[in-house]
Design a protein that fits this description.
about 425 residues, alpha+beta, three-stranded antiparallel beta sheet, 12 strands, elongated
Length: about 425
């Protein structure tokens, strides 16, 4: 008698689902352990996949860094020469490649770790999936932002080449300002995009939030805005530029940088003075760097017992020493005159101008002038005066004081 056929509902078969080809019991013991056991709520095999992804990302990151380092080392100063973005010829193709590789080195490593999170998120699954995807998106955003931030150096190179035919002040002040402004915008948009990645808000909502708080920020940043407008005023008027030596009140030094908010002045004693730009507008600034020459004025005093002939000889000696002197221009000849009867000397006024205004060359020349005056005056027997005072004492038998009639009571020896 044939076996009885027991009818089974079609829905029951459908609910049972397809029969798996391989079950956990069919796997080897090691693989069964990976599939069935959990650590912190995550299957061991998922952690193993994550570990493999991290290891692969580490290896790839090291390889990429090695590639960039080797390429950059070949372009370092040497046969080809790494670029100097401040130099007019910094736009050489080798220089552009150097900047491009240097800009992409760290962003490439960040992108590799973004891929690692992108692959490791599904491996972890569960509650780890969404944070891993957001972290991957943030790393990609940070990688792009860092690449753009570094690439501004290449933009600076082209700006310097474009502005190299303009005034040096515009060249040295405008380019750094543009560079800083672009980098600030890059960081701002990168921060908003990363915030969007973790918060899930739309970018337009974030921007609108910034717009609402912008009024309060503007009120709180009034001084900063004033400094920015003062920077624009300095940029237009150009009273000084980086590298100029200026004197502002008690500060005497060299301008290092001119930024949106402040100007950095390196004083001659080495101290760094940071001056807000608002304190530079409307002030008297002595730009020492732009002087066309260095002027020296001195008075050489001779004793009152010097005969007129010796005074004339002294004037002639000084004129001879400064005749067609080093650093002299025809429109600024030296001036030597017997100019004053001072309280304690016969004053000879000496003035000369030194071109170009190179301070240490001027000092070396002035030293040679001083030594020659000492030698020539000593050989001629001309004596220098120094402040003296003679006191007459009443009753001094060696130098009796006699009152001359009609002299207004003035005593004389």
């Amino acid at each position: 008698m044939p076996d009885a056929v027991v009818p089974v509902a079609a829905s029951a078969v459908a609910d049972a689902g397809p029969t798996p080809l391989v079950t956990a019991e069919d796997l080897p013991e090691f693989l069964r352990f990976l599939v069935t056991h959990e650590v912190l709520g995550v299957e061991v095999y998922r952690l193993a996949v994550l570990f493999g992804v991290v290891a692969a990302a580490t290896v790839v990151s090291v390889i990429v860094r090695y590639f960039f380092d080797r390429r950059l080392a070949r372009l370092e100063p040497g046969e080809f020469g790494a670029p100097d973005v401040s130099a007019p010829d910094g736009g050489h193709p080798v220089g552009q490649l150097y900047i491009l590789l240097k800009s992409a080195r760290r962003p490439a490593q960040l992108a590799i770790w973004g891929v690692a999170f992108l692959l490791g998120g599904p491996a972890l699954g569960g509650s780890f999936f969404v944070p891993a995807m957001r972290a991957a998106q943030a790393l990609f955003s940070l990688s792009v932002a860092l690449f753009a931030y570094n690439l501004v150096e290449l933009l600076e190179l082209y700006l310097r080449r474009w502005l190299q035919n303009t005034t040096v002040a515009l060249h040295d002040m405008l380019v750094p300002a543009i560079r800083k402004a672009i980098r600030v915008l890059i960081l701002l948009f990168a921060g908003m995009h990363i915030y969007q990645s973790f918060s899930g808000q739309e970018l337009t909502t974030i921007i609108a939030g910034f717009g609402i708080s912008g009024v309060a920020f503007a009120l709180a940043a009034q001084d900063s805005l004033k400094n920015i407008f003062a920077f624009l005023s300095i940029l237009v008027a150009r009273p000084f530029q980086p590298g100029d030596r200026i004197i502002l009140d008690e500060h005497d030094g060299v301008v290092e940088t001119v930024g949106f908010g402040a100007t950095h002045l390196r004083r001659l004693d080495g101290h760094l003075v940071i001056i807000p730009n608002t304190q530079l507008t409307g002030r008297v600034i002595h730009n020492v760097q732009r002087r066309p020459f260095i002027k020296r004025s001195l008075t050489i005093g001779l004793t009152y017992d010097t005969p007129p002939a010796k005074v004339e000889e002294a004037v002639a000696i000084l004129k001879d020493i400064l005749h067609d002197h080093e650093g002299m221009r025809a429109d600024h000849p030296p001036r030597v005159h017997f100019a004053e009867f001072n309280a304690d000397n016969l004053g000879i006024s000496v003035t000369y101008w030194y071109h170009p205004p190179e301070y240490w060359s001027y000092m070396a020349f002035s030293e040679r002038v001083n030594l020659e005056i000492l030698r020539r005056f000593g050989a001629a027997g001309i004596e220098f005066a120094f402040p003296t005072q003679t006191v007459f004492l009443a009753g001094d038998r060696a130098r009796p004081v006699v009152m001359a009639p009609g002299a207004g009571g003035a005593p004389h020896a």
